[in-house]
Amino acid sequence: MTTKALPLLEPEIAAACCPPLTERPLTAEEAERTAVMFKALGDPVRLRLFSAVASHESGEACVCDISDVGVSQPTVSHHLKKLKDAGLLSSERRGTWVYYRVEPAVLAAMGALLARAGGA
Prior knowledge:
The protein is an alpha+beta fold. It has one domain: Arc Repressor Mutant, subunit A, CATH 1.10.10.10. It has helices at 11-14, 28-41, 44-54, 63-66, 73-85, 106-114, and strands at 60-62, 89-94, 97-102. Helix 3 packs across helix 5 (73-85).
């Protein structure tokens, strides 16, 4: 049996977005950062693309593996750019293909934002 060590998130990275919504009201700056993130995920195609990358078994996905979301390739590229601009994805070009991965602390920060106070 092979075990895979998971990377540890630096506390300041995971908290970079904002505190849990139940902890205190967001500041104007925190609300702006959070709104950009949720606005990017507010489109069904972008949400599907983000989910495809986040759930990919290797932790990253080639654009060639996630393009079948019912829109043209230029539209897929547009939506992936929006996700990158919102800080949700990063990418790396390898030859003719681009590989996308979820930014390391994004899922943890989103989970922490929506978590109930006290870890319940």
